Amino acid sequence: MLLTLDLEPPLINNRPAWDPLLPRPSTHKQVFTIVNRTTMSKSNITDLCFGIQGDTAIVTGASSGLGITFAETLAEAGANVVIIARRYEKLKDVADRISRETGASVLPIKTDVTKEEQVVEMADKTVEEFGSLDIIVNNAGISAMDPSVDMPLSEWKKVINVNLTGVFLTARTAARHMIEQESGKVVNIASIYGAVGDKFQAAPYYASKAAVINLTRAFAIEWAPHNINVNGIAPGFFPSEMTEDIFQDEATKKLLASRTALGRTGKPVDLKGALLFLVSPAADYITGETIFVDGGWTAL
Fold first, then answer.
1. In the Cβ-directed half-sphere of 147, how many Cα atoms lie within 13 Å?
2. Is 205 tagged catalytic?
3. Which of 67, 218, 237, 252 has its CB 3.0 to 4.6 Å from that of 62, i.e. a possible disulfide?
């Protein structure tokens, strides 16, 4: 229950007690809203802080793995969702399923995040279809594993091109639309390996994810004057195409769990809250930050 009072301020020495800088005599009134916290419903708080119904979101790399989780999260919260990837048939199947299960509008668009003309066309089509572009989740990523001394330069370039240049292209293209709107939320998906190394020989992956964390800061500072929040999520070990071999090996899974403070690897649902938080009004005063959703891996 909300109670609004329109009151004349009391005077102390002929000056308004609530604002001593106002000139005398004053007819200044102050309006107070009194919130009855005992009767405010949980749904009101949820809508106020986490409501994104009707927003339009893009998720890159959404034909598999964590990209599907992020797309599901946004659709479940009532957003229109555009999912992009290079594998259109898989993308279309994902879009159909999410739309059927959530009732949300889910549009699949075949896009290579390393091709600027495709990215621009995809963003334009999103705005044409839904009228705005409010959220982008830059999830597309690949890896390459080889000792650095043996890794072909072409493999290094491929990982950097998708994981870093792809984020740059999709984020800035979305930002151009968001700047026109004077609002937007950008979430870049990094990794625990943007902050720490490991015995896995994947130097370009580590380097690209560390760069994404600092690129997130750079974008946050540049676009803050336009009311655009730019943040990141750094997942630990979650089941995905990239980690499929790891999760099929019980010994490796046990090793990973032993190196995690919470004693287990991640479940897709563990990422949903972090994403919804960062794209919602609850995070309006947060920018340039990366949340590590890793069960305490980087705390050990």
1. 2
2. yes
3. 67
